[in-house]
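Deviations from the work plan: none for this task. Representative record:
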Amino acid sequence: MQSKNYNLRSKENKLTTFDMKRFAITIMVLLAAAGLRAQNFEEFFTNRTLRTDLIFSGDATTQHIALRALHSWQGWAGRTHNLNQVPLKGDGELSLTDEATGTVIYRTTFSSLFQEWLGQEEAQTTQRAYEFTILVPQPLRPAILTVQLFNPSQEVASEMKIRVNPNDILIRNCDNHPTTPYTTIFSGSDKEKIDVAIVAEGYAADEMETFRADARATVEALFSHEPFGSMRERFNFVAVESAAAESGVSIPREGIWKESAIESHFDTFYSNRYLTTSAIFAMSDLLTAIPYEHIIVLANTDTYGGGGIYNSYTLTTAHHPLFAPVVVHEFGHSFAGLADEYFYDTPDIATNFLTPEVEAWQENITNLVDFDSKWADMLPEGTKIPTEVTDKAEKEYIVGVYEGANYLTKGAYRPAVVCRMRNNTATQFCPVCQRAIERMIRFYTE
Ligand SMILES: [Zn+2]
């Protein structure tokens, strides 16, 4: 095993004239971007939400993106600044371009269960279709909506471009859509807040008291972790009381199928603990007209499991003893786009999102292709790569470059010995994950 000495202070720090010029240009570009940031939301958008329902289909060789439907309702809970910026590259991107001026007026990035499935063996021989929903602010004037899916090398693998005319009579107006009953669980005091909907899955109508208690426990679990705790005033949480016909969720390996609110089930990709839903449109219907940007689904079961997909949803078991660490871990995926820091000798979920040639986009893993873009600035002086695992490093969350992450024992590195993104026994996120989450919170609120 090779090890190299990583000494950050040895880097040249002097600015050359060229650098100064580049620095000045960068400042100018940043000011221009800030101009667009400050450029009024009102100049391009109306205070309405446009729900974009998409179908991702295909197999490992070819993928296709298609528009399923557009829905619209009063109110926009998302950001009204940083409109044309994205915090992470993600596995896909949606953008809106003002047709008249060619200005990119909104961008957002995401990951999808469809793309995870593309890494499964089944995708070599079978075509499948997956639902996906993205909420965008409704443009005032016709705009070009572009959706791209990236391959593991982070190149565009498929793209859809369509014209969206906000006056199209076939955009379904949901202003009179019955709203699912919901309760505010926590409401922060800051002006700009991140709206999170906690959704009931597999709770019968007479189990809503239990659901509200589980939703409160979810918020407490998040706030017991930094930086969520100290930045709590920047969040709103509501509990969406979507009642199911019967209690519990589906466990296919036991032959159990339930009529739950959003048809979630364990055994996704035949992995016992992987709990997901493919009924994205049904979930979006339940959330119509409720102010939300992020989704946490609580499954009324004590079977262990969960899943979290960046800018799509977190879904987790509510009544297992490890509920609290798991829901926070999954929210690390869905809210902050963090990767798993754990690994096995034999992976039980194939991963196709770490290629040796390209640096992973997740902030808490690296394959050392472009480590400077990751947590190089947080390494103690003289840190060796790979960093040796010690008791002290584990106890004190000492930042290093520890081999083993993202389901791989070799070639992938994590920032700490333990972390909420690695194991349920860790008590906190590691410092690198904490910084990534804080950046994300600031992106949405500043
Ligand atoms: Zn971490």
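The first strand starts at residue 4 and ends at 6.
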